[in-house]
User: What shape does this take?
Amino acid sequence: AMQRMERVEINEAFAAQVLACLKAMESKSFAERALGGSAPMGAPDTERLNVHGGAVAMGHPGGMTGARLVLTLLRQLKHDMGGGLGLATLCIGGGQGGAVLLGSEPWKS
Assistant: This one.
Protein backbone atom coordinates (compact mmCIF):
# COMPACT_ATOMS: atom_id res chain seq x y z
CA ALA A 1 0.00 0.00 0.00
CA MET A 2 1.09 3.57 -0.63
CA GLN A 3 1.28 4.25 3.11
CA ARG A 4 4.33 1.94 3.30
CA MET A 5 6.31 3.92 0.72
CA GLU A 6 9.00 6.09 2.27
CA ARG A 7 9.53 7.87 -1.05
CA VAL A 8 7.71 7.95 -4.40
CA GLU A 9 9.16 9.27 -7.66
CA ILE A 10 6.56 9.92 -10.37
CA ASN A 11 8.25 10.86 -13.62
CA GLU A 12 6.17 13.46 -15.39
CA ALA A 13 6.13 14.28 -19.07
CA PHE A 14 4.78 17.71 -18.08
CA ALA A 15 3.98 19.38 -14.76
CA ALA A 16 0.25 18.51 -14.65
CA GLN A 17 1.01 14.81 -15.19
CA VAL A 18 1.61 14.17 -11.48
CA LEU A 19 -1.69 15.84 -10.57
CA ALA A 20 -3.57 13.57 -13.00
CA CYS A 21 -1.82 10.49 -11.60
CA LEU A 22 -2.66 11.44 -8.01
CA LYS A 23 -6.31 11.96 -8.95
CA ALA A 24 -6.44 8.57 -10.70
CA MET A 25 -4.88 6.85 -7.67
CA GLU A 26 -7.72 8.16 -5.49
CA SER A 27 -10.50 7.36 -8.00
CA LYS A 28 -12.78 4.38 -7.42
CA SER A 29 -14.10 4.52 -11.00
CA PHE A 30 -10.52 4.48 -12.38
CA ALA A 31 -9.68 1.48 -10.19
CA GLU A 32 -12.75 -0.39 -11.45
CA ARG A 33 -12.39 0.56 -15.12
CA ALA A 34 -8.63 0.49 -15.66
CA LEU A 35 -7.30 -1.77 -12.92
CA GLY A 36 -10.12 -4.28 -12.50
CA GLY A 37 -10.28 -3.57 -8.77
CA SER A 38 -13.05 -2.39 -6.54
CA ALA A 39 -11.15 0.17 -4.47
CA PRO A 40 -8.67 2.92 -5.34
CA MET A 41 -5.02 2.23 -4.57
CA GLY A 42 -4.64 5.56 -2.79
CA ALA A 43 -2.18 8.31 -3.54
CA PRO A 44 1.15 8.70 -1.77
CA ASP A 45 1.59 11.35 0.89
CA THR A 46 2.71 14.48 -0.98
CA GLU A 47 5.47 15.00 1.63
CA ARG A 48 7.07 11.80 0.25
CA LEU A 49 6.47 12.50 -3.45
CA ASN A 50 9.21 13.86 -5.74
CA VAL A 51 10.83 15.52 -2.73
CA HIS A 52 13.78 16.88 -4.73
CA GLY A 53 11.62 17.85 -7.68
CA GLY A 54 10.48 15.77 -10.62
CA ALA A 55 11.70 15.53 -14.18
CA VAL A 56 10.70 19.12 -14.93
CA ALA A 57 13.06 20.31 -12.16
CA MET A 58 15.80 17.66 -12.33
CA GLY A 59 15.65 16.66 -15.98
CA HIS A 60 15.07 13.39 -17.76
CA PRO A 61 17.87 12.75 -20.23
CA GLY A 62 17.00 10.75 -23.33
CA GLY A 63 17.42 7.04 -22.70
CA MET A 64 18.41 7.60 -19.07
CA THR A 65 15.17 8.55 -17.36
CA GLY A 66 14.74 5.15 -15.72
CA ALA A 67 18.30 5.17 -14.40
CA ARG A 68 17.88 8.72 -13.06
CA LEU A 69 14.64 7.74 -11.30
CA VAL A 70 16.01 4.56 -9.73
CA LEU A 71 19.27 6.13 -8.58
CA THR A 72 17.49 9.20 -7.18
CA LEU A 73 15.07 6.96 -5.28
CA LEU A 74 17.75 4.62 -3.91
CA ARG A 75 19.85 7.57 -2.76
CA GLN A 76 16.86 9.06 -0.94
CA LEU A 77 16.03 5.75 0.73
CA LYS A 78 19.62 5.25 1.86
CA HIS A 79 20.65 8.75 2.90
CA ASP A 80 17.40 10.56 3.72
CA MET A 81 15.37 7.74 5.21
CA GLY A 82 17.93 5.19 6.40
CA GLY A 83 16.13 2.45 4.43
CA GLY A 84 12.61 1.44 3.51
CA LEU A 85 10.43 0.99 0.44
CA GLY A 86 10.20 3.28 -2.55
CA LEU A 87 8.23 3.40 -5.78
CA ALA A 88 9.47 4.83 -9.08
CA THR A 89 7.06 5.28 -11.99
CA LEU A 90 7.78 6.17 -15.59
CA CYS A 91 5.41 7.44 -18.24
CA ILE A 92 5.99 6.09 -21.72
CA GLY A 93 4.66 7.61 -24.95
CA GLY A 94 1.39 6.24 -26.29
CA GLY A 95 -0.30 5.87 -22.91
CA GLN A 96 2.05 3.22 -21.56
CA GLY A 97 3.93 3.25 -18.29
CA GLY A 98 6.13 1.28 -15.97
CA ALA A 99 6.89 1.10 -12.28
CA VAL A 100 9.41 -0.51 -9.96
CA LEU A 101 9.22 -1.14 -6.24
CA LEU A 102 12.60 -0.82 -4.54
CA GLY A 103 13.72 -1.62 -1.05
CA SER A 104 16.77 -0.49 0.84
CA GLU A 105 17.85 -2.02 4.11
CA PRO A 106 18.30 0.34 7.04
CA TRP A 107 21.61 2.16 6.76
CA LYS A 108 24.24 0.86 9.17
CA SER A 109 27.19 3.09 9.97
